[in-house]
Specification:
3-stranded antiparallel beta sheet; 309 residues; mainly alpha; 14 helices
Length: 309
């Protein structure tokens, strides 16, 4: 137990340094993305939370907390409609948010288009990749419209967790989970955990307006990336600076939290995820290489096409 506690303290110090650097860089870089020019029209834009290392960090945390919740993470990744991407990329004054009512038509058009990605996957940029052994566990690109926002399901979630090294002894009991998540009125840390878990699992069957396959969430009627400025899942990073350790100690699962970091690739994913998130801040939309015809055409990049002006 003492060894676990010592490791947890060292790990949390590492995470504090890593994620604080990312948050500081995001604050310094606010507005710089738009200044670099219009989005490249020959890319497939994806929400950064779907990038393999970030997706797998979030999956491990959610499965560790409650496998039933992790089962609602997205089973497939879907490129953003170009109109949505263009809006989110340039919405500097609106904190990289766009009115859902205005974007809904583009999501709807994508949902009825046939062919999906036509068996051609957009490749994640180097900044958002991980070992192929693990990358294959992240969501594949969708093929059919009915796969958009579909959840993993418990069977697939259990399989991924097992391959990542999670065993039953790492998973929180119902009592430990209830202690961690709290009940209203929650404290600040618990509210962040609760809100982030909802945003990461807004799949079909778990919300009225699913957006999980895009790595997006709804905030007061606006759609935005799960790691856009001030998003709950971005604020979750700050919990590594002490609150998460305090919750684990108070709720009696500090040893389980330590095992999550020692017996899974969690630290590997955190380092890679930091690089990915830092590269694509502040909108938190990554540009993946167009499959097939690259810069000659972007027809294969997004079902809803918009040529950048």
């Amino acid at each position: 137990m003492k060894r676990f506690k010592k490791f947890l303290e060292v790990t949390l110090v590492f995470l504090v340094v890593l994620w604080t650097g990312c948050l500081d860089a995001q604050q310094r870089g606010a507005g710089s993305q738009a200044a670099s020019g219009a989005p490249n029209p020959y890319v497939a834009p994806f929400g950064v939370p779907l990038a393999p290392p970030i997706y797998l960090v979030n999956f491990l945390l959610l499965y560790f907390a409650n496998p039933e919740i992790a089962a609602y993470m997205p089973a497939y990744r879907v490129p953003l409609p170009q109109e949505v991407y263009d809006c989110l990329f340039t919405a500097v004054e609106n904190s990289y948010s766009c009115p859902y009512d205005e974007m809904a038509q583009y999501f709807a058009a994508q949902a009825v288009a046939s062919g999906g990605s036509q068996n051609k996957d957009a490749s994640w940029p180097p900044s958002c990749q991980t070992n192929p052994r693990w990358a294959n566990l992240a969501p594949p690109q969708y093929r059919q419209p009915d796969q958009i926002n579909q959840p993993l399901g418990r069977k697939n979630a259990d399989k991924i967790a097992q391959l990542l090294g999670v065993d039953q002894g790492m998973i929180l009991t119902d009592e430990e989970y209830a202690c961690m998540i709290g009940t209203p009125p929650r404290d600040v840390a618990q509210e962040i955990i609760f809100a982030c878990s909802l945003d990461l699992t807004n799949s079909t069957g778990n919300t009225d307006l699913p957006l999980s396959s895009y790595g997006l969430y709804l905030s007061e009627g606006d759609v935005r990336s799960n790691c856009a400025p001030n998003a709950p899942c971005l604020e979750f990073n700050a919990l590594f600076a002490g609150p998460l350790e305090s919750i684990a100690a108070r709720c009696g699962f500090a040893d389980k939290l330590a095992r999550l970091f020692t017996q899974t690739p969690m630290l590997e994913f955190i380092g890679e995820g930091h690089d990915c998130q830092k590269k694509w801040m502040p909108s938190c939309i990554a540009e993946a290489a167009c499959p097939g015809n690259g810069g000659q055409s972007n027809n294969s990049c997004a079902p809803s096409l918009k040529v950048a002006q």
